Amino acid sequence: MNNEPAGKSIKDSVIAAIESGKVKMRPKWHFVARAILFTVGIIFLLLTLLFLASFIVYVLRQNGVWFAPAFGLRGVGVFVRSLPWLLIAVAALFIVALEALVRHYSFGYRKPLLYSSLAMIFLAVIGGIAIAKTPLHSGLFNQAQQNNLPVAGTLYRVYGMHPEDSVAEGIVMELKDDGFTMQDHLSEMLTVQMSDDTRFPYGTGFMEGDRVMVIGEREDNVIKAFGVRKIFDEFPVPPRRGRPQVKGGQNSPPGMQMREREGAN
Amino acid sequence: MQETDEAIAKKVQAGDIHSFGLLVERYEAKMLRYAKRFLFGYDDAADLVQEVLIKAYANIQSFDADRSFSSWLYRIAHNEFVNAIKRKGREPLSFFDPDTLFPHPATESPDREVSDNELRGMLEDSLSKLDPKYREPLVLYYYEDLDYRKIAEILRIPVSTVGVRLQRGKRALREAYNNLHLKS
User: Fold this and answer.
1) CB A109 to CB B161 under 8 A?
2) How many domains, chain B?
3) From the CA of B65, how many Å to the nearest CA of chain A?
4) Both A134 and A219 in a single domain?
5) Cβ contact (<8 Å) for A18 and B57?
């Protein structure tokens, strides 16, 4: 580079290169365009991360796995075993990519990596839970069930329609002496058998129409329940095929629908 | 009153090519000193500095005149020098630095003057023996007289990590110095 005659200073060489036109100043728009690209990249990664995180929460909620830790150590074991690790690994990759982009900015590199990574994980979890409470995923899940969702449909079909064997979530359809029958989110009818060993972390008193989560050993459509709990949260679920039409409409919580019907009688 | 670097950079951004000569004049010697101390055993320090200044001109529109021109230029130099080290492959440069992962308590040395005298001798003798990761902050702190905040901006690491690298660098320097003098 420094091929100028001996004795010529660096300043002379630099100025000569500029004046001869060998070196050109990059226009401002070049840097503006680059900054926009970076920002778009960050927004894209962030939105995809939030979508993935909320999908993970939705799937866990849909399969009932989300509520498993309420059953103690065994529940925690089921929860850890049932986590969609592939999706979590993909989400982690998005966090790494996001971190790499954010560290180009002073607000990113001024803080230790641990802080910014924890902030991103926190954002993904909180944002994921918040988005999972909206009807976004249940709507997309319905479309996937009807094969109307071209790209993400596979994702919903693979993760949303194959619940963990030892966990089930659904609506109590009929109470029996030793348990109840319930309809899960795929409209399958399951028989839940309870015994003296069955745990009820949130009490008993189940009613027809209650949303419940069951953990136990499943053989075909029979579950020997290790634990049963009611679900009180307001995560939206896709309408179940073949569910009996009751007063109160589709948007009322299932427990309410049954109670409203009983009240009307 | 002397015009600030930032004011001159603004003129260059507006198309005044010759004002860039003033900036080159102000920083040529500093950049050469930085290159020679950081890049031991590299005989192309002058070429690299010329490249740094040319890149500074080419990218001057990305400079934000509300920030420090000196930090901006040192950042370009840091990138250029690190790339030179990678190209030559003589010294190991890790992609990921665990020092940037965890927070460290801020430890700006209060006895800079006292330790200066002791350290200057060690720096002269043993700086070349250090890992570039520790050599660079020592050069910026002791030879370029930059504070922690500026060094952090140049290296794009947290301020507390600068403190950690300086402390470890000084320790490594002492060890290298002792080894050198014990052998002789």
Assistant:
1) no
2) 2
3) 13
4) no
5) yes
